[in-house]
Design goal:
Largest sheet: 5 strands, mixed
CATH architecture: Sandwich
CATH class: Mainly Beta
Strand content: 35-45%
Strand order of the largest sheet: 1-9-6-3-4
Helix content: under 10%
Number of strands: 10
Structural class: mainly beta
Radius of gyration: 14 Å
Number of domains: 1
Length: 122
């Protein structure tokens, strides 16, 4: 039994290849992070991203094989680290703090590439 707590959300299969997955977290602004995304076969995809002024991360779809995010791929697990060696995993501040994010890809014609809650309207 695992004690890992993951936030669960979804994106649509329609995210264009030149677009990104937006993680609406409250990480430190303008800070470089390393992400690790694992698929249902435990294949790992690792890359570096820099948080924007709000602490959000944009993970480029182009970092993954074309068609990778589809409704038949199963769930993906996203973890964020402060180092490229994957030694210091970040507690991802979303609704609460989470060790990871489980991402489901849904079919249909929905348009959604964001993980986490929407930013408050001013």
């Amino acid at each position: 039994m695992s004690c890992t707590t993951c936030f669960t959300d979804w994106i649509c299969k329609c995210v264009p290849y030149n677009d990104f997955i937006l993680l609406r977290s409250l990480l430190d602004p303008a800070t470089e992070y390393t992400y690790r995304l694992r698929d249902k076969f435990d294949a790992e995809y690792i890359g570096q991203v820099t948080s924007d002024e709000n602490g959000h991360l944009e993970i480029p779809i182009s970092d993954f094989p074309d068609g990778f995010f589809n409704e038949y791929a199963g769930n993906f697990t996203l973890e964020i680290y402060t180092d490229a060696d994957l030694c210091n995993r970040v507690q991802i501040p979303l609704v609460s703090s989470y060790e990871c994010v489980t991402i489901e890809v849904r079919g249909g014609n929905n348009e959604k590439n964001t993980i986490g809650c929407a930013a408050p309207t001013p």
